[in-house]
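Why does residue order matter? Because the sequence determines the fold. Keep that principle in mind as you read this record.
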Amino acid sequence: MNLPWGTLISTASGAAATILGILVGTRAGRRNESGQWIRDRKIAAYERLLQSFGAVEIGLRHAYWEQREPVGIDWEEWNAALVSVSLVADTDVGIAAEQLAGVVGEFSAFPFGESKDMTILRQIHTKLDAAQREFVNAARRSIHASDTKQVPWRLGGPPPWGELEEIHQRDNDIGRIIP
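Structure:
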């Protein structure tokens, strides 16, 4: 049987193109799946760190406010959250997480149990707020590369300073400490 060369070349080209398409499609699918998995891991690690930060910050602030040593703070969870971030973070997120951890460490070394100094509390509050915002913005850029805007609002993290001053003044007026 004698096949014309045109038919043979056409059939072989079609088969090769199909196989190549399958290989390229499989590779692209795996790459996309891997990228989605990494993105999901980043989001989970960043969420965990922000949740742990919120709990640690509130615990330290209440201890300072109540003039007592901080107890019940889950330092193991805080450390585990930092490690989780270190596994998936790019450089900017890693630097922001390190800065946030540094400010938390600075706050944890405060003179708890002594009388409150609103100037000192305001200084650390400003640092905590700035570090938390920087982490959020770095995390957002890490997850959404096209999102280069800074978050212009505050959701979570240390409450606005004005609220803390009002609470402090109200508590002083009635001789009460934050529950």
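The helical segments are 5-65, 75-88, 91-108, 118-143, 161-174.
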